[in-house]
Amino acid sequence: MCGIIGYIGKQKVVPILLEGLKQLEYRGYDSAGLSVINNGKITTIKAVGKVAELQNKIGSRDFLGNIGIAHTRWATHGKPSDKNSHPHGDCEGNIFLVHNGIIENYQELKKILQKKKHKFISETDSEILAHLIEEFNKKLDFKKSVLEALKLVRGTYGLAIINKKEPEKIIIARNGSPLILGIGKDEFIVASDASAIVRHTDKIIYLDDGEIAEITSGGFEISNIKNKIVSKEISKLDWTIEESKKGGFDHFMLKEIFEQPEVIQNGLRGRIEHFLSEDNLPILGGLRPIEKKLRKIKKIIIVACGTSYYSGLVGEYMLEEYAGIPTEVEYASEFRYRKPILNDTTAIIAISQSGETADTLAAIREAKNKGALTLGIVNVVGSTIARETDAGTHTLTGPEIGVAATKSFPTQLLVLALWTMMLGRQREMSNVMSKRISEELKNIPHLIEGILKKSKEIKKIAKKYISAKDFLYVGRKYNFPIALEGALKIKEISYVHAEGYPTGEMKHGPIALIDSNFPSIFICPKDSVYEKNISGMQEIKARGGKIIAIATEGDKEILKLADDVIYIPKTLEMLTPFISVIPLQLFAYYFGVAKGYDVDKPRNLAKSVTVE
Ligand code: G6P
User: Fold this and answer.
1) What confidence tier does 339 reach under pLDDT thresholds 50, 70, 90?
2) 451, 583 contact by CB (below 8 A)
3) Which CATH superfamily is domain 252-452 in?
4) CB burial string 506-517: b at 16+ within 10 A, e below
5) What does each C-alpha distance from 278 to 274, 282, 431, 435 come to in angstroms?
6) Is 246 a residue whose pLDDT tops 70?
7) Domain boundaries 3-244, corresponding CATH code
8) CA of residue 603 to ligand 1 center, whole Å
9) What are phi and psi of 560, to 5 degrees?
10) In CATH terms, is domain 455-594 a member of 3.40.50.10490?
11) What is the maximal distance between C-alpha atoms in the chain?
12) Residue 149: pLDDT above 70?
């Protein structure tokens, strides 16, 4: 997804911008570019492909400027090309800008500007912004021109703009696309993502929607769209540079898979690790102000995308079984255009690692408009979803760099389990049950460590199936969403076809595909649906299909049916997804690596999808 970095200060700007772009690479992109101001002249350089290509184009040219903006683009309007890459300029080459988001009425605006003789170079929606500002800049100063231009725009933006006519400043603006201002010593760094700021400073300001900031080397001023100055709180960024590095692993993905015991431990700390009362209630500070409202909730709708959606599906089983609250899970992209029946006894839970996914955000806004209570299960602190929901709990996952989600999944499950305990205890759940769940949750990091020790064995199995072009993943009840997540993981990073299905549904279609070249992965721990999974396995076996089983330690019967078995330890049925997902993450990782792919940055995918 697109990334923005801007710098104004005393240092040479080009190396800083390139370094910032590299920090943003993990978000996924297809081209990059930068504009710098030097001696009243603006130089713009763009390249398709990786930041290294841009670096090559710059070569040994020495830019003396210390003000500039840069961008990584993930194509939405127009293919990846130099012309379509940012920064985009106006007709006169005075104004250059980088933009994240989508200008919905760009066609309309483009026609008006074309009538006024503006010439467009790219196919992008972003370019019209430069021309629109240029139009106002004929009479107004830079900042007022930006404000007037933005009043005409419908859509979302995170913007950083420079102007040759006022060469000592950068103007930034935000509406629906994240933008952060980093405050360093005699310097300011602007970025769409904290990872590009962390090496410069830990003092940051999160811009809110409708805010615009004028930044010079001497200071900054933030105002709203009506040009009224707003005072903002300076936050402390608590991500270290080390946290953004690979920590000795070959890939971020593997590092993040191995971090799972630790991040779950972080999520448990202070929440159930030391019970403060006899009630066996988890301590969830973010929900405290709305505890009374939660007692009145009669229906829950979970909205999310991708892996977060699958954790929501596990949450549905948990919340219905243990909290007794009717729960639905819906793709956020569908929810936003449906006519959901919501009222003040409905709670909408948004699950999002990044907290910036456009569809999830839109779903939350829609629910808010309809009067529902909105809750967030979000990793990134200060992200838009975290700020716009009425209440919530952070997953405390730390930065997740691998584009395909891994460690964010069990930490989302953890929050869902804690919420189930809390909502359950407000209703029918016994003290004893809550205690049982909490005791078992505390054991989860240790159980995951045990599975991680089997990574070599899992690598071997992945290699054994390397010629497979298709996989069927099946599971039931709590492990049906894990079948979906397992299939998604291998699709994302290995580009092989995989389908996730409930075991019972398999005979209504996918079984037709099965032959000796189409292996099935059964997630079949010893739980209440074990026998049902075994029947499914027999059906596959009878058709000559190969079987890899994720089974409970000590299950010898499974060896009669499965070609390969990966054992996982026993835990409460509701918590099996925490551990059954681990071998599937590792399987997908080793499979993708064996195929020679860049598993951290899969083709066509983005870490944070901030467009619809
Ligand atoms: C993208 C990522 C996925 C992620 C999904 C939802 O597709 O590649 O890994 O699960 O977005 O993102 P979110 O940040 O809302 O959890």
Assistant:
1) confident
2) yes
3) Glucose-6-phosphate isomerase like protein; domain 1 (3.40.50.10490)
4) beeebbebbeee
5) 11, 11, 8, 10
6) no
7) 3.60.20.10
8) 14
9) -75, -25
10) yes
11) 81
12) yes
Closest-lying ligand 1 atom to the alpha carbon of residue 360:
15
CA dihedral defined by 563, 566, 567, 571, rounded to 10 degrees?
-120
> 21-53 in b/e burial notation, b at 16+ Cβ within 10 A?
bbbbbbbbbbbbbbbbbbeeebbbbbbbebbee
Ordered by start, the domain boundaries in the chain are: 3-244, 252-452, 455-594
Ligand 1 pocket residue status of 405, Cβ below 6 Å:
yes
- Fold match between 3-244 and 252-452? no
The residues assigned a catalytic role are: 2, 607
**Token pair for residue 455?**
């990574």
List, in sequence order, the alpha helices (H) in 301-407.
306-318, 332-335, 358-369, 384-388
Q: How far is the CA of 404 from the centre of ligand 1 (A)?
A: 7
CA 176 centroid distance within chain: 15
Q: Is 607 in the pocket of ligand 1 (CB under 6 A)?
A: yes
Give yes or no for a contact between 264 and 444, defined as CB atoms under 8 angstroms apart.
Answer: yes
Supply the pTM of this predicted model: 0.76
Q: Does 273 score more than 80 pLDDT?
A: no
**Three-class HEC string of 118-165:** CCCCCCCCCHHHHHHHHHHHCCCCHHHHHHHHHHHCCECEEEEEEECC
Q: Kindly report the backbone phi and psi dihedral angles of residue 351, in degrees, each rounded to the nearest multiple of 5, phi listed first.
A: -110, 125
| Distances in whole angstroms, Cα of residue 344 to Cα of each of 116, 255, 300, 308, 363 | 50, 42, 11, 25, 16
Phi (first) and psi of residue 94, to 5 degrees: -95, -40
Rounded distance from Cα 307 to ligand 1 centre (Å): 6
Rounded Cα–Cα distance for residues 513 and 536 (Å) = 14
In which residue are the tokens 């890939």 written?
251
Encoded tokens for 223:
């105002």
Place of tokens 């010629």: 467
pLDDT at residue 247 tops 70: no
- Which atom of ligand 1 lies at the shortest distance from residue 306's CA? 10
CB 612 within 8 A of CB 1: no
- Return d(Cα 115, Cα 107) in angstroms, integer: 13
